[in-house]
Design brief:
The complex is a heterodimer of chains A (329) and B (328). With 329 residues, chain A is an alpha/beta fold. Chain A folds into two domains: 235 residues, P-loop containing nucleotide triphosphate hydrolases (Rossmann fold), CATH 3.40.50; 70 residues, no CATH class. Chain A is 31% helix and 21% strand. Chain A contains eleven helices and twelve strands. In chain A, strand 11 and strand 12 form a beta hairpin. Chain B is built from 13 helices and two strands. A two-stranded antiparallel ribbon of chain B has the order 1-2. In chain B, strand 1 and strand 2 form a beta hairpin. The longest helix of chain B is centred in the middle third of the chain and has 39 residues. Chain B is globular, with a radius of gyration of 24 Å. The chains are: A alpha/beta (329), B mainly alpha (328). At the A-B interface, helix 2 and helix 3 of A face helix 9 and helix 10 of B.
Chain lengths: 329, 328
C-alpha cells in the first residue's frame, strides 16, 4: 500500500462551532475495501467528522482547516455543485436513526429510486426495477411487493436496510455509517453489520464506521481510530489495540464494555467506569483527557497536548505516560 | 380494497354521519332566530309606513307567523323532509331557487380567495422559514400581522379608495359589467377583474394565517432526519425543499387550513356587502334585516352543509397526502 494514494486521506481536519472546536487537527486514511472505525463517546467529534466529509455540517459550524483528499480531489475545497455530485454517488452516508431517516410520505421504492434518477439519469420504470433489485440486495423479503410500502409499515431493522439500499444504489467508493446499529436490537445489529460488511467486500467500498461500541470494532474493523474531545488519541489495528490499549482513554472504554474475563461470566465481571464527563475537556490546555485520567502526571496538563507518536505495528498514540509501560493495570 | 374505493367508502360514511349534524344545526338556528326582536310582518309594516292591528294579524296569519313555535318548526322540518327550503314572500320565489342563484357567485369568490390565500400563504411562509430571524422574515412577519389584525371591511373600503377611485384600475362592486354584451374570454376577464378586490379583501386574513402556519411547519420539518438523508443523496436545495420539506409541511397546514374554511364564509358576508357582490353572504345579510327567516335558515343550512362537505374533503385530502393515516 505504500506509495499509492488511499481512497480517502483526511489531513489536519478542524471543525469549529462558535466558541467551541468539535474536531481538532484530525488525520486518518481509508483504503479502498477497508473498514475504518472511529470510536469515542458522545461529543468526541465522530459525527461531526462524518458530516464534515459530506459537507453537511450544521449552519453554525465551520471547517477552519485541513483537507480531505478523495479520489484526487480535496472535498473541503469543492463548491456546492461539485459536492452534490459526490454525495450519494461517490460517498454515501447512513445515519443512526432509521425510524426517522426516511421520508414518511414517500414509498421506500420512490426513495431508493430518487437517488438513481438523480445520479444515473434512470427513467421512472428503470429506476423502480433497480430499486427492487437493491431491496433484494439488502435482503428485504419479497422486494417487488415491499417496494410500494411506506416507511411506517417497516420495522427499524428493515428501514435501516432501506437506508443501506439508498446508500449503495449508485455504487459509492466510500460509505460512511454513523452509528448504524445504535437504535436497533442486538440481534438485528449483527445482521445489519454483516450486510454492510458483505456489501463492502462485494462492491469493494471503503467503509468509515462510526460507533461507540468496541464489540463492533473488534469484529468488523480493519483499523480503529479512537477520538476524544475532537482529537485522535489512538489508532491501530483492532486486535492489538483492544488487546493492549496504549491510551488510558481506550483502556477506560474497554473497561466499560461488558466482556468475558478470565474465569468469570458476564454477570460477575464488574464494569469499570471512566470518572467525570467529556465536558471537563473544555478549556484544558494539555491532554484533554487529563482531568479524568488516573495515570495523569503534572506534565499532562501543560500545553501543548501530547503529540501522536508512532509505535510498532502501525500504531499511534497521544500519551507519553502509558505508551512506554505497555497496557495499564 | 383499492385506495380509490376506500376513499369513496369513507366519503359516503362521512356524508351519512353529517345528516344528524345538519338537522341539529337547523333546529338550533331556528330557535336562535326566534330570539331576534320583531318578525317579517313588523318589517313589512314599517316599510309601508303604517298598518292597523288588523292588517298585521292578517299578514302574520298569511305568513304562518301566528302559529305556535313548535308548529312552525314542524312545518319547516316537514318542508325540508320533502326537499323544499320553503318560500320567500319578500323575493316572491322559492328559497332554494333564490339560493341556487346566489351560490355560484359565493363559491367563485371563496374559491378565488382560498386559492390566493393558500398560494401566497405557502409562499410567504416558506420564504419566512428559510430566512428565519433575518430581515425578509421580519418584514413579512409585520406584513402578515397587519393582514391578520386589520378588519376586512376597512381593508375592502381602502382597496376601493386606492384601486377604484384613485387609480381607476378595478371596478368597485358587482360581479360583472352590467349589459356589457361581452362573451367568451372577454367575459371571463371581466368577471375576474370584478373578483380581484373582494377576493383579495377576503383572502388577506387567510394569507396571514396560512403564512404563519407554513412558517412553523417548514421550520419544524427542515430539521427532521429525513431532510438530512435527502441532502446526503446529493439533491439540490430546491429538490430537497419541494419533495421533502414542503411536501411534509403541507400536512399540518392542510389540517388547520380546513378548520378555517367556515371562517371564510363568515368573511364573505362582509366582503360581499362592501363590494355589493351578489352572493350568499349578502343574501343572508339582507334576510336578517328583513326578518326573512325562511331565506336565512336556508342560507345557514346550506353554509353548514358546505362546511361539512369541505371538512370531509379536507380529511380525504389529508389521508391522500399522508400515507400514515388509515381511512376508517
Amino acid at each position: 500500500m505504500v506509495g499509492t494514494e488511499p481512497l480517502l486521506r483526511i489531513d489536519g481536519l478542524t471543525v469549529a462551532f462558535p466558541g467551541e472546536t468539535a474536531v481538532r487537527d484530525l488525520s486518518l486514511a481509508v483504503e479502498a475495501g477497508q473498514t475504518v472505525a472511529i470510536v469515542g463517546e458522545s461529543g468526541s467529534g465522530k459525527s461531526m467528522t462524518a458530516l464534515a466529509l459530506m459537507r453537511l455540517l450544521p449552519r453554525s459550524a465551520r471547517i477552519t482547516g485541513g483537507s480531505a483528499r478523495f479520489a484526487g480531489r480535496d472535498l473541503m475545497a469543492l463548491d456546492e455543485g461539485a459536492m452534490r455530485r459526490v454525495r450519494g454517488r461517490e460517498i454515501a452516508m447512513i445515519f443512526q436513526e432509521p425510524m426517522t431517516s426516511l421520508n414518511p410520505v414517500h414509498t421506500i421504492g420512490a426513495q431508493v429510486a430518487e437517488v438513481l434518477r438523480l445520479h444515473e439519469g434512470l427513467g421512472r420504470a428503470a429506476a423502480r426495477k433497480r430499486a427492487i433489485e437493491l431491496l433484494d440486495l439488502v435482503r428485504i423479503a419479497d422486494p417487488a411487493r415491499r417496494v410500494d410500502d411506506y416507511p411506517h409499515q417497516l420495522s427499524g431493522g428493515m428501514r435501516q436496510r432501506v437506508m443501506i439500499a439508498i446508500a449503495v444504489a449508485c455504487g459509492p467508493k466510500l460509505l460512511i455509517a454513523d452509528e448504524p446499529t445504535t437504535a436497533l436490537d442486538v440481534t438485528i445489529q449483527a445482521q445489519v453489520l454483516d450486510l454492510l460488511d458483505r456489501l463492502r467486500r462485494d462492491l469493494s467500498m471503503g467503509l468509515l464506521l462510526i460507533t461507540h461500541d468496541l464489540g463492533i470494532v473488534g469484529q468488523w474493523a480493519d483499523r480503529v481510530v479512537v477520538m476524544y474531545a475532537g482529537r485522535k488519541v489512538e489508532e491501530g489495528p483492532p486486535g492489538a489495540l483492544l488487546e493492549a490499549p496504549l491510551h488510558p482513554y481506550t483502556a477506560g472504554l474497554l473497561g466499560a464494555s461488558p466482556r468475558k474475563a478470565e474465569g468469570l461470566g458476564y454477570r460477575e465481571a464488574r464494569l469499570a467506569e471512566i470518572p467525570g464527563s467529556i465536558s471537563s475537556a473544555r478549556g484544558e490546555a494539555g491532554c484533554a483527557f487529563a482531568p479524568r485520567c488516573r495515570h495523569a502526571i503534572a506534565s499532562c496538563r501543560a500545553a501543548p497536548p501530547p503529540p501522536l507518536v508512532a509505535h510498532a505495528d502501525g500504531r499511534m498514540v497521544a500519551c507519553p505516560v502509558l505508551a512506554g509501560s505497555g497496557a495499564p493495570s | 380494497m383499492t385506495r380509490a374505493a376506500r376513499l369513496l367508502a369513507a366519503l359516503r360514511r362521512n356524508l351519512l354521519a353529517a345528516i344528524p349534524t345538519a338537522l341539529g344545526i337547523v333546529i338550533l338556528n331556528f330557535f336562535l332566530l326566534q330570539l331576534a326582536p320583531g318578525d317579517a310582518a313588523d318589517v313589512m309594516a314599517a316599510e309601508s309606513g303604517a298598518a292597523t292591528e288588523e292588517t298585521m294579524r292578517q299578514l302574520r296569519a298569511q305568513l304562518g307567523l301566528d302559529l305556535p313555535l313548535l308548529s312552525q318548526l314542524m312545518a319547516y322540518l316537514g318542508h325540508l323532509a320533502q326537499g323544499s327550503l320553503g318560500f320567500s314572500p319578500r323575493y316572491n320565489m322559492p328559497v332554494a331557487e333564490l339560493i341556487l342563484q346566489r351560490l355560484p357567485g359565493t363559491l367563485m369568490l371563496m374559491g378565488f380567495a382560498l386559492g390566493l390565500a393558500f398560494l401566497l400563504g405557502l409562499f410567504f411562509g416558506t420564504v419566512m422559514a428559510l430566512n428565519a430571524g433575518r430581515i425578509a422574515d421580519r418584514a413579512l412577519s409585520v406584513l402578515t400581522l397587519i393582514f391578520y389584525s386589520v378588519p376586512g371591511f376597512w381593508i375592502g373600503l381602502m382597496l376601493i379608495v386606492a384601486f377604484s377611485i384613485k387609480l381607476g384600475w378595478l371596478p368597485s362592486g358587482g360581479s360583472e359589467t352590467i349589459a356589457s354584451g361581452k362573451t367568451g374570454l372577454d367575459y371571463a376577464l371581466d368577471r375576474l377583474r370584478h373578483m380581484i378586490l373582494p377576493g383579495t379583501t377576503l383572502a388577506l386574513f387567510f394569507i396571514a394565517v396560512y403564512a404563519r402556519l407554513t412558517r412553523a411547519a417548514v421550520m419544524e420539518v427542515a430539521q427532521q432526519d429525513f431532510v438530512r438523508t435527502a441532502r446526503a443523496k446529493g439533491l439540490s436545495a430546491f429538490a430537497v425543499g419541494r419533495r421533502h420539506v414542503l411536501r411534509n409541511a403541507l400536512l399540518p397546514v392542510t389540517t388547520l387550513a380546513g378548520m378555517h374554511i367556515g371562517g371564510i364564509l363568515g368573511g364573505a358576508v362582509v366582503a360581499e356587502t362592501v363590494f355589493s357582490w351578489p352572493g350568499l353572504g349578502r343574501l343572508a345579510f339582507e334576510a336578517v334585516m328583513r326578518r326573512d327567516y325562511n331565506v336565512l335558515l336556508g342560507v345557514l343550512l346550506l353554509s353548514s352543509l358546505l362546511v361539512i362537505v369541505v371538512n370531509i374533503l379536507v380529511d380525504l385530502l389529508h389521508a391522500w397526502l399522508d400515507p400514515r393515516i388509515d381511512l376508517r
